Amino acid sequence: MKSINAAKGYAPDVAPPGMRIALFYGADGATATDLADKLVKRLAPGGDAMAVTSFSPAQLKDDPARLADEAAAVSMFGDRRVIRVDGADDGCREALELLFAAPAVENPVVMTAGALRKDSKLLGVAEAEPTALCVICYEPDARDLPRLAQEIGGEFGLEVSPDAARMLIDAVNGDRLLLRRELEKCALYVDAAPDRRERLTAAHVGQIGADTPDADFDALVEAVAGGRPAEADKQIRRLNAAGIPGITQLRAVARRLWLLLDLRGLVDAGPSPQQVVDAARPPIFWKTKPAITAQLGRWRTPALRAALDRLLATERAIKSPGTAGDVLASQTLLAIALQASR
Q1: Which of 15, 88, 230, 324 is deepest in the core (most CB within 10 A)?
Q2: What is the pLDDT of residue 160?
Q3: pLDDT value of position 180
Q4: DSSP 8-class letter at 14
């Protein structure tokens, strides 16, 4: 199936009947990952993460038959399963050919890749297969970003005002994954849900600090993610004295941990932390490259997920009545810094 433009011809959570594989690729890696995440949740029975099997490109290069074998495997419970491959490249071509040569089965494959060339062998195999869905993700046009914020916000029950959309777009530098996460937090703040719509205004965005420049928190973020509890404590005290809410501090650290989680997924596929940081799109600011490279070597995927879950749980606890408030934020940030130090 010829590639379709993600911005114009693809409903992000819909799979065509008979689809065996969905390939999301292009210069906008954040959009490719976001669309793949949504489709996996749609395809996995009940959205169960345990129904998803992940392979790295290196694994498929070493044993190309594993993809077809896994697609044909039957779950002990008889449910459909989803196979996920991130960071695919031409080295996965043979695995794809073996998949298409095998009889069609119920277990679909969802794959992401970077900016593949027109003469890419992987892309050529996928586009020649009628049961493959190929979606190219171009860098978004600045004019499309406010509309994108409104569309994603709608998934969480938000009616995003134009001013709020612009503030959020500026805060995340146009990154679709970060935008989704900020909108999810905004929905939590205004108590919105898909069946309970609420309007999100610029005032709300300002109140929760989603538009606060990361530079104000750089020292805290580097201390927590870098595993320096004593420095983290110093920076928490500085921000508390300046009247910066604990939730805002939690979110600044969460943005770094989300970035590390995204990059760590690529490192797990084989490249070194330095290679992943150098190739990141959008590019990582040169001053932070050494710190992020070191943090990628320090953190592992399960620990990052656990830390992000703890940040979100702390934010919810702070918003509950009768809690210790910002003290909870300080305790959580110090605990994460201590975890990273180990």
Answers
A1: 88
A2: 94
A3: 84
A4: -
Question: What integer pLDDT is reported at residue 210 of this predicted model?
Answer: 58
For the beta carbon of residue 329, count every other beta carbon within 10 angstroms: 27
Residue 132 DSSP SS3: strand
Instruction: Provide CB contacts within 8 A for 313, sequence distance 6+.
Output: none
Question: What value does the CA radius of gyration of the chain take, rounded to a whole number of Å?
Answer: 21
Q: Hey, how many other C-beta atoms are within 10 angstroms of the C-beta on 249?
A: 27
pLDDT at 144 over 90: no
Q: Which whole-number Å values give the CA distances from 71 to 75, 127, 246, in the listed order?
A: 10, 19, 46
d(CA 214, CA 205): 15
pLDDT at position 168: 87
Q: Please state whether the predicted TM-score (pTM) of the whole model is above 0.90.
A: no
**For residue 11, what pLDDT is reported?**
63
Q: Report the pLDDT value the prediction gives residue 223, as an integer from 0 to 100.
A: 95
Identify the band that residue 106 occupies on the pLDDT scale cut at 50, 70 and 90: confident
Rounded Cα gap, residues 314 and 312, in angstroms: 5
Q: List the one residue out of 37, 62, 27, 48 whose CA is nearest residue 140.
A: 27
DSSP state of 138: P
Upstream peptide bond of 282 is cis (omega within 30 degrees of 0): yes
Measured between alpha carbons, how far is 252 from 220 in angstroms, rounded to an integer? 9
Taking the alpha carbons at both ends of the chain, their separation in whole angstroms is 48
Query: Which residue reads 């890419």 in tokens?
Result: 120
Tell me phi and psi for residue 23, to 5 degrees. Answer: -115, 115
Whether 183 contacts 152, CB under 8 Å: yes
User: What's 209's DSSP letter?
Assistant: T
pLDDT reported for residue 228: 95
Rounded to the nearest integer, the mean pLDDT of the chain is: 85
- The amino acid occupying position 143 is R
Specify the length of the chain in residues.
342
